[in-house]
## 1
Amino acid sequence: MSRPRGGDQGQVLSSLVAVAAVVAIVAGLLVLFGTRGHDSQADEKPAGASTPKSSAGKPSSGPSTVGASVPKPTEKPSATQTTEPIRPSAAPSKVPTTEPTEPPSTEPTEPPASTQPPQPSAPVTIPAEERPAIEVYNNTPRKGLADTVAGRARQAGWTVSGSPDNWHGKVAESTVYYPPGMLDAANQLARDLGIGRTKGALDNMKKDRLTVILTSDYAG
């Protein structure tokens, strides 16, 4: 038997390689179509995953545990996942029980009235050398009253002009009459003699001295 030539051997090897490649392709297709059904089931339900059961022992028709672990859009986020700030209530929690106080009055308040009577001003004391002369008259039935009061006036530092005499006419009460400019002297003479009234001089009285008329009200 004669051996094939070199060129024939190359053709034979090429044919074998082509046949092997076709066989490998066919085998791959068989394997691919043969395992497709198992692969689709594996995608729907992974191997070894357990289906949660209900309290009655029946398999649950709900989603698997893998799907349940993912929060649904309708579920409320937990307190730790809340991102919105807490808004205060529209109504205050506590209503003040006290009413606002009235503003202070701007009107000036009058000082409280003093319970003590006003103190009189200090009397004016006229030196003896500056005092005017005086005349003393009795308008009562009491004899010697004008002389007695004239003596008291001299002891107090007053100069008595003329002799004490009686006054004819009606006088309301014992009075020291004074001409213009001698009011202070008249007040001092009235204090010294215990007379409670002073009055401007009458037309028929002298205008350079004080005139004292004693009536029945005089207690001195």
Note: Strands lie at 134-138, 165-166, 175-178, 198-200, 210-214.
## 2
Amino acid sequence: MDEIRIGIVVSEFNYDITMMMLERAKDYADFLSVNVHKVFKVPGVFDMPLAIKKLLKMNDIDGVVTLGAVIKGETDHHRIIMDNAARKITDLSLEYEKPVALGISGPGESRLQAEARIEMAKDALESCVKMVKAMKELH
């Protein structure tokens, strides 16, 4: 099978958590012999769709992994962010017929819960790789 080339879009918001997620995903990609071809840092989860779209348009990207942590604040703002991001991520995956894995923890989580979910970055990467392989088999 051809080399799998993945793009990662990572939120800089909650940087201490998301950069650890990025490192876990990159390490796991090395373990799986997957090429992390591009890493695109965006200010927050709400900013991800444009970066995802740019990556999906590239011929040398087979799929995208999103990484972020949407932590609950004093209002329900976190729900608006997550609901809209998740919906658009799904729409982009369908539009470009390439997998986009949801590696964004939340909404409604505390900082401690977000820290406990850092390892889910590996799950998102694995999900993306499995879907890329499945899509290549269909073509």
Note: The chain has one domain: 5-138.
